[in-house]
Amino acid sequence: MQKLKQRWEIQENWQILFPILGVLLVLLTSYTIARSLLHLFNLNNTIYEWIFTAGLTIVLYYAMIKFFLWCFKKVENRWKVDYKWEMIAIFIVFAITGSAAGKLAGPLVHWIGLDDENVPGMVYWTLRILLIFPIYQILLVCIGWLFGQYQFFWNFEKKMLKRMGLGSFLR
């Protein structure tokens, strides 16, 4: 446990929540992907279902952990954070925000009255993707605040909007 605390620069016991949450979310994601691939190989309701799921979950988990550790090394010097455990929190916020924005765009498009039944598919998906952008921007700051990373995400938003030529919205 001490080695984990040193590696992620954890000073307080509550900060251990982020590495644990990160590991659990990667495990859940690996399991979800493995379960969805069962349909691809027609292994549902067979004797091999759980063997396939467990094996693929382990392989995906290992690959994702390796990928995320590689990502941490790439952004470690670019992101201005005080402690390494904050990078885990930031990655979790990005994951939750992206998923939530994608999920919320569907009901919002439906609420506006634009369904794929009454508008052409290309128009529907274009509008849905365009709606994801503002939802994502708002959620990024809000969820970042919940995870204690408000300042990082507010600075991230300002920089992104300025690069897109939308810096005038910040005034």
From TrEMBL:
GO molecular function: transferase activity
Keyword entries, A-Z: Membrane, Transferase, Transmembrane, Transmembrane helix
Residues annotated as domain DUF6787: 90-166
Residues that span the membrane, as ranges: 16-38, 50-72, 84-105, 125-154
Name used for this protein in its record: Prolipoprotein diacylglyceryl transferase
Organism encoding this protein: Flagellimonas okinawensis
